[in-house]
Amino acid sequence: MTLCSNRPEGFGPRSHLYSHVLTSCFLDTILVPLCTWLYLLALILLLAAQRRRSASVHGPSSSIFGARGFSPSKTTADVEVVGLDETDVKRQHGKIHTAFSVLYYLLLLAQILMCVLEITRLSLAHLGIGLLPFTFVTLLTAAALRFTRGIKGRIGGWRWANLAVWIALAVANGVKVAEEVKEGTGQRKGSKYPVADEVTDVSVMIGVYAALGILEASLRA
């Protein structure tokens, strides 16, 4: 399977047919995969920074005593009431967090299926798939980081890296949709993957990336 085939606009970045349009091959081979490459680079840098910080610590951090202790002025009944209230709040927050987490993983699964759909239809239309499969690396890595909480704390700042890549992928795919609309949604009519269909698929993916970004910012580590 070639990176790009049967795409009359050429490799790019500028289209041979429309000088003001970026080629779909350039977008699928460079722009969209670039988000994954930068994401992986950021994770490597975060891992290295975390190891450096860990190595610079010569002893265990001092504990803060009395943070959750109760004041001698409070009665036992007061402490019990406060404890019950805190337990209810924590239980409610836990339910919300679980619901958001389930939704997060469902959206990741949906995005994987959307990527499979786009790649399959490009392949069936003999248009080449570029380097779009790199997106799977991002989706699976992000899922693993959230599930393991940054591989058990070894990668500091992983949530911000995840949030950044969701935004970057939404923007990159937004550029892709904009360029295809400029080229004309009537292109490739009669083929196994008309431009209009691809615009619809990628637009759905943009919405999923946006939702993932919102959840990433909402969910605690």
Q: Would you count the extended β strands for me?
A: 0
Global Rg:
24 Å
Average of pLDDT:
84
Strand-residue proportion: under 5%
Low-confidence stretches: 61-71
Q: Count the helices. How many?
A: 6
Elements, N to C (H/E): HHHHHH
Structural class: mainly alpha
Helix proportion range: 55-70%
Structure description:
This protein is mostly helical. The protein has six helices and no strands. The two termini are 40 Å apart. The radius of gyration is 24 Å and the shape is elongated. The protein has helices at residues 24-56, 76-124, 134-147, 149-153, 158-183, 195-218.
Ordered list of secondary-structure elements with their pairings:
Elements: H1 24-56, H2 76-124, H3 134-147, H4 149-153, H5 158-183, H6 195-218
Helix pairs in contact: 1-3, 1-5, 2-3, 2-6, 3-5, 5-6
Supply the key terms:
221 residues; mainly alpha; elongated
Short précis:
The chain is mainly alpha-helical and 221 residues long.
